[in-house]
Amino acid sequence: MTLRYGPTLGFSHQAVHDHGRLINTNWTTLEDQPLTGKSVNDLVNNAIPTIRHRGFLSADRCRDLVHIVQQYQIANKETYLNRVEEANSLQKRFKEEANIDILARVAALLQEATGLETRVAHEGDRSYFAGLIRAVNDYIQIHSDYAPYDGAGWEIGKITSQLTWNILLKQVPGGDTIIYDRQWKGAADDEAFRKAFPRYAYEPAGVQGSIFKAMKAVEGDLTFFNSRNFHEVKPCDKAWDRPDDVVRYTMSSFVGYLPGQSKGAPPSLILWS
Ligand SMILES: O=C(O)CCC(=O)C(=O)O
Ligand SMILES: [Fe+2]
Question: I need a labelling partner for 145 at 20 to 30 A (CA). Which of 75, 128, 194, 229 fits?
Fold first, then answer.
């Protein structure tokens, strides 16, 4: 059987059973799917909410990685660590000290599952950074990540679908990721629902009435969802007298579906953060 990749036109509304109830959704299931060529294609087309590859990193490996991050003192006050140089050197330490190239492993797994070339995004001979480490001690508000609108003219601006992968490096209580069956529609959504502050976030009214998938945070699991869908990260459960106790460590990057750039050229998957 040949699998076709890339977004299909239009949206299909179908009824899915959830605890005996019938609900309308673009998704054919609410269950996490294993990582296969079909599930990646379904995620690209927003036909399923999530992919979960269990036990991607062992408990020992997770502990080593968190130790490195903690030594780097990005815990507690820093939320998004996105300064490229710092992130790159942290990535280097990940590789050297933990002797593992997580990004390469994820890329290899994706390439194996889909049969599509999977590589880090680039502009000419300059590569993007991919493989963000986040240490979050709060929540992440409702937002959408979709590059074609903000990256027009760049390689990542040519993608037609965007996924994100995350690996939880240390178990937390709570901290679920909520993915809504509602894709960002562009300027109209920004006008209607984007917050003045914080600028990345959208009003909950924008997703009102859409069903959602609750994706549990499980240490060591590699998970994927379609990042054009509005999503949020719930706060970790913590004791009122120890507000800074819990930090949610993750490693993450985006995956873009890049159609063949010349006639007859095959599509590929590109990674960046
Ligand atoms: O940490 C997560 O579960 C999701 C973070 C996020 O917003 C993303 O990967 O786009
Ligand atoms: Fe996001």
Answer: 75
